[in-house]
Design brief:
Layout lengths: L17 E5 L14 E9 L12 E5 L5 E5 L4 E2 L3
Antiparallel strand pairs: 1-2, 1-5, 2-3, 3-4
Length: 81
C-alpha cells in the first residue's frame, strides 16, 4: 500500500480577521441573487477540497448585522487588524 501526502496549503486568513470581499452566489441562485462587496469578521475558512469546491474557495464572514455570508477567497483582502 502506498501513502501519498500532499503539502498543506495554509489560508492567508484566520478566524477573527476583518476582510472585505465579494459574496459567493451559487450559479443556480444567480437569477434572483447577485454577488456583492461586503466587509465582516471571518468565522470559518472554507475547505477548498480538490474536486469538491476548489474552484470556489471561500470564507464565511459575519456581517455587522449578525448575518453570515460566504465570500470568495480570491479577491478578498484584510481590512482590519
Amino acid at each position: 500500500m502506498t501513502t501519498m501526502t500532499r503539502a498543506r496549503v495554509r489560508s492567508p486568513y484566520r478566524v477573527g480577521d476583518t476582510v472585505t470581499g465579494t459574496t459567493y452566489v451559487d450559479p443556480a441562485d444567480r437569477g434572483h441573487e447577485t454577488p456583492e462587496r461586503v466587509t465582516g469578521e471571518v468565522v470559518q475558512v472554507g475547505s477548498g477540497w480538490v474536486g469538491v469546491d476548489a474552484d470556489a474557495v471561500y470564507l464565511w464572514i459575519r456581517l455587522r448585522n449578525g448575518r453570515e455570508r460566504q465570500v470568495l477567497m480570491s479577491g478578498a483582502e484584510k481590512t482590519g487588524p
